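Researcher: I need the complex structure. Ligand is adenosine-5'-tetraphosphate. Inputs:
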Amino acid sequence: MSETLERKRVLSCIQPSGMLTLGNYLGALKNWVKMQDEFETTFAVADLHAITVRQEPAKLRSQIYSTYALMLALGLDPEKSTMFIQSHVPEHACLAWVLSCNTQFGEMARMTQFKDKSAKHADNINVGLFSYPVLMAADILLYKPDFVPVGADQKQHLEIARDIAIRFNRLYGDVFTVPDAYIPKTGARVMSLQDPEKKMSKSDDNLNSFVAILDDKDTVIRKFKRAITDSEGGIYVSEDKKGVSNLITIYSAVTGKTVPEVEKEFEGKGYGDFKLAVGEAVADELAPIRERYNKIISDKGELERLFRDGAERAERVARKTCFKAMKKVGFVV
Ligand code: AQP
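Model: Output:
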């Protein structure tokens, strides 16, 4: 059997709900790039998910382009991976409906992200926000992946996707592969620079709380200089020093140095020097990405060709699974 046939399938998606952050990069995309050589990989820009929160249409459109372009700039390769925009493959919405009718209200009501997001967007607690995990289950199950890379915050949603798949298979026969969580060996959980109790998020209203991958050097350094630390002074990882610990995690992820090595490097130094070093290391890592991005985004025609082609490839797989599920529930297909 050829090596290609033996490769396990992996799928992951990212929402174009803002400019991608250092958290998205260190926690997800940096690993996706590595996975391309080991797995058969599928990556989507999850625009359907983004509208669970109110988006300004022109801004959303531009963020969809920039998210796709940034995925390319970071090293995702359409020759190696299927890369597409979720709304270009209508089977996502179609399967989500079939799965919605096989998911219980009570299961959705337990989702902590719904509770968090509805608290944050109290003026727009829409049905899509509530049933978001069913759409996520459809995103996953359509491509029959063996693994789905998930951060701690998405674990509950993968669990529900597994439950939905198992139940559907039991009721209607074998349609879906039940995927496992993939916890990458490396991959940092990056916290907000302004509130290290919260994860760094691209949709945070406080622009100083996150570093966007496309921020220029001065902005990156300024944001790190303003990062919340503490008044104790030592540079080491500790539960009581969440701000400093977060900066150490970031520095370690960017430089490849271990945490003890970082602690040793900054022994006896002040927060000012430390923050500057983290800022410079991050800015140096991001500079070439920004350069590649600027080139890619300036050729819209090529970008469109790539994502249309990706959607065609994705749909060939998605259509098969979706038709099978539709047939099983009794539709005439
Ligand atoms: N702070 C983070 N640290 C590590 N990993 C992170 N991810 C997101 N933030 C961090 C990982 O990035 C991938 C894509 O995430 P997403 O954009 O689909 O949704 P999200 O997790 O909700 O990311 P954001 O930035 O917080 O978006 P908004 O603000 O729109 O909700 C996922 O693998 C995620 O774990």
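Model: Summary of the prediction. The chain has a mean pLDDT of 94.
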